[in-house]
Amino acid sequence: MDEDVVRERDARAYEAVHDAADFKELKRRYKNFVVPWTITFMVWYLAYVACNNWARGFMNTEVIGNINVALVFGLLQFVSTFVIAALYGRFANRKLDPLAAGLNAKFKRERRR
Amino acid sequence: MLIPLADGEPGNRVLTLSLFSAVVAVTLYITWWASRQNKSAADYYAGGRNFSGAQNGLAVAGDYMSAASFLGISGQIALYGYDGFLYSIGFLVAWLVALLLVAELLRNSGRFTMADQLAFRMKQKPVRTAAATSTIVVSIFYLLAQMVGAGSLVGLLLGVKGEGVKAAVIILVGALMIVYVTIGGMKGTTWVQIVKAVLLMTGTVLITFLVLLKFNFNISDLLGAASEKSGKGQSFLQPGLLYGKDLIGQIDFLSLGLALVLGTAGLPHILIRFYTVPDSRSARRSVQWAIGLIGAFYLMTLALGFGAAALLNTAKGSAVEASKGNVASPELAEAVGGGAGSLGGSILLALIAAVAFATILAVVAGLTLTSASSFAHDLYANVIAKTKPSEKSELRVARFAAIGIGAVAIALAIPAQKLNIAFLVALAFAVAASANLPSLLFNLFWRRFNTSGAVWSIYGGLVSAVVLVIFSPVVSGKPTSMITGADFAWFPLSNPGIVSIPLGFLFGVLGTYLGKDRSSEERYNELSVRALTGAGAEGATKH
Question: What residue in B sits closest to A84 (Cα-Cα)?
Fold first, then answer.
């Protein structure tokens, strides 16, 4: 088949998927998850960096034995990273993948038309 | 300065050398095996896109945990305590940017290189040239850091020193990486990363276990012993020994933190890893695996670093201090194995040395492949060649480019011996965050973004990061600068990120509006459908 014909057929299929209600829903779900969580982990991380600079008294507070707030705060950055990664994985598997699979099938159908 | 590693013990050196040879033999075998399965461009550039999420996750972790982090971070903790730990936190949190905003969308919308995703809706030649330039610059900075490290490290681990040895090691490492990349392509390189990641994790778990065993798994006791032995008391466990001594230092630290957290998702050698899996779901799995592995690894470096501070001599004039902390982990391995001269100590020392060597080889191979792919696929096939070259000739160019880039890296690394490794790595992250991340994000999330915006943002971010470093205290004006006896440092920070990253985004906006061109908007719908749903994305090759 001619390359231009293929391009045009694909472009039409992409537009059809783009106009589908499911795609708007997919986009909305993705943004509603990603934007607040990105802001959360960036603020949380920068708060940690800032405390290392400007809240040393607080960071040096003893928690238990030789373990101080600074170390706990640092370890909590690990915990939050693990948790957010797991939450996103669960969310994407349940809420994004099924919609994406449906739209993918729609794209294939549209392309055959 | 004499490094008392393996000195006067030829038995040790034989053991270390035979383990080094075993690493080389295994990796060469993998490369040869992979080469027999390389048929198409997708095989060479993307390993056939057949790796599973877990396999690629190991390879991503392997690419990311360089010798600089294995030996460097534990060494920094051994010398500076708590502050040495701060790098690894930025390095880890950074993966959330990659997971949430970049990995899957890039997997769905690109083919082989970082530039593919921009070229999807922009004018091919200018964006590919810009993206290839920044890919090659970032990769060369990173590559130099690894090779400079390899030169001094291998000499240290083998107990030999001298400029000649360093140069010989750099040439050997360079030659090996050229072989891996030209023959094995992405498939070979990925398997080398996987083997290396397994070796590195196993070695680290073993030493961590032995260290914790010495303290009956009581973390507080380990920290107490470390702070006492360091001679710095409680301040060893508190922020401030390394960073943020005054206001400039504090802003500098914030700037470093920003570059670390935003740089990862713009590192080309990490980005092209997402093309080695069949779909976006496995790209997501691979980042999750990488986060788990890298996080566990950095937690263990905490035990290694504080363990070294507690069990080794780290005072001024000691081997650990003289090597800027780089030999802390190998020496610690020897100590927990039973001490110098003991059988257990010798075996563990040789083992960790071999792991470090495997780490260096794997990371340099990944970087060379990235640069060679970008040269052949972006510059040669889409800019230089007058007519679209055949796949075969593009791959031939990629292989020659790997040889060329390897040669350039060797030639640059030998005179660069005096450069600080951590500085080169931090610079690579700053350039990646300033030049690559803004255009990646704008392209995916901003319809109006266009060719001139992308070009401005890439060159603008790249030039601002590099220029600010040239006029920083890293290069001149201080006794510790690269050029002593001159002072043209008008930029007070060593880390340019806090200025150059916003500039990269700003240039993207300015370029977009000044460029006026709106033709890039035509395919934005197509790009977002493809990125979010995977419709029409490149699939795995079938053999």
Answer: B96
